[in-house]
Design goal:
Blueprint: H1 5-28, E1 35-43, H2 46-49, E2 56-57, H3 60-64, E3 79-82, E4 94-101, H4 125-130, E5 140-147, H5 152-160, E6 165-177, E7 183-184, H6 192-196, E8 201-205, H7 206-215, H8 224-227, H9 231-238, E9 245-249, E10 252-265, E11 275-280, H10 296-304, H11 315-327
Parallel strand pairs: 2-10, 3-10
Antiparallel strand pairs: 1-5, 1-11, 3-4, 4-5, 6-7, 6-10, 8-9
This protein binds zinc ion.
């Protein structure tokens, strides 16, 4: 025993951490052996992925929104469904015990500031974040715990390793039309572009787009590459040129998001919305290619479920977990 002091130190520290830890993580994800845990990429942001196949765009800053029941954390504690059959909770196939935002890396010159506070009209602050090499994709990942007793069919798909799509449900405060800037809080307030021609391209005078971007500030400059059909058109709006026509795509920019469900679906509206990996087995012994668990929430879940033995983790991971105790 005495000839291996380092290992013992690590183990003591592990157990100490674990005790602190267990009391915290049980609250977010109590382990249930009847559940299968899977990580899904639920939604991508407008800035990186553009609008989805339903021609809905979701700005990154609304993922960051940390008001209660807004932003990415609003997924947590909601239910999972199949094909958005969420009108009654009886259709639920499980729970959403965790969510994670692949946060944009903020360059050094903006340290301490959130993306939402960065300017994009007078300076290129947001553009410099988005253009950062190796920038993250700003997507939201959600942990889904599927009840294998009530949903054996979905559980079998997960166990078989087949690809499984997903699609989220969200409430929004309002949406903005990318062609005319109409703000709609309810469906009856939709402009004709959104009501009849969503996803179609329209010829728009550059002066009109300039007004939406620079005067009314309804469309942000960093969204333009997804609204306009060419780099040249984007440049002409950025330079406030007014004497030409542009080709612009009609879609809705959805603001102030409050997520209320995540469904497994056959045909996701967001092309990259798929299960990333299965996180836990029913017996909960093996899972755990630990290197694939990048998110603190998932590591916490693994530990609370008894799937990850803290004594097996390298020291630098333990340091991260020490930080995580603060987060939880
Ligand atoms: Zn419109």
């Amino acid at each position: 025993m005495g000839d291996c002091p380092v290992e013992w130190n690590t183990r003591d520290r592990s157990q100490d951490l674990y005790r602190k830890f267990a009391s915290q993580v049980q609250k977010i994800a109590p382990y249930n052996p009847d559940f299968l845990y899977s990580r899904f990429r639920a939604i991508g942001c407008l800035e990186i992925d553009g609008p989805n196949n339903n021609w809905d765009g979701f700005p990154y800053e609304d993922f960051e929104d940390d008001r209660p029941n807004f932003g990415y954390t609003s997924f947590i504690g909601k239910k999972a469904f199949v094909e958005h059959q969420s009108h009654t909770v009886e259709n639920s196939i499980g729970e959403l015990p965790g969510a994670y935002l692949n946060r944009f890396i903020i360059p050094d010159q903006f340290t301490g500031r959130r993306y939402a506070t960065l300017d994009s009209w007078d300076t290129d602050e947001r553009r410099s974040v988005l253009d950062l090499p190796d920038q993250r994709d700003g997507s939201i990942e959600v942990l889904m715990a599927i009840d294998s007793k009530t949903s054996p069919r979905v559980a079998r798909i997960i166990e078989s390793g087949q690809s499984l799509g997903c699609s989220m449900g969200t409430n929004i405060a309002y949406s903005i039309c990318t062609i005319c800037g109409n703000v709609a809080h309810f469906e009856h307030q939709y402009c004709p572009h959104i009501k009849y021609a969503k996803g179609q391209t329209h010829i728009v005078p550059a002066s009109d787009m300039n007004e939406l971007v620079w005067d009314r500030k309804l469309i942000r400059p960093e969204w333009l590459p997804h609204v306009l059909s060419s780099q040249q058109d984007v440049r002409s709006v950025m330079q406030k040129q007014a004497s030409k026509n542009l080709r612009a795509r009609a879609f809705e920019v959805n603001r102030e998001l409050s997520f209320f469900e995540l469904s497994v679906v056959a045909a996701p509206a967001f092309n990259r919305a798929y299960m990333l990996e299965r996180v836990a087995s029913i017996q909960g012994i093996e899972l755990v290619d630990f290197s694939s668990l990048e998110t603190p929430e998932l590591i916490a879940l693994g530990i609370s479920a008894g799937l990850i033995d803290l004594a097996t983790l390298p020291d630098e991971r333990l340091e991260e977990l020490g930080v995580l105790i603060g987060i939880l």
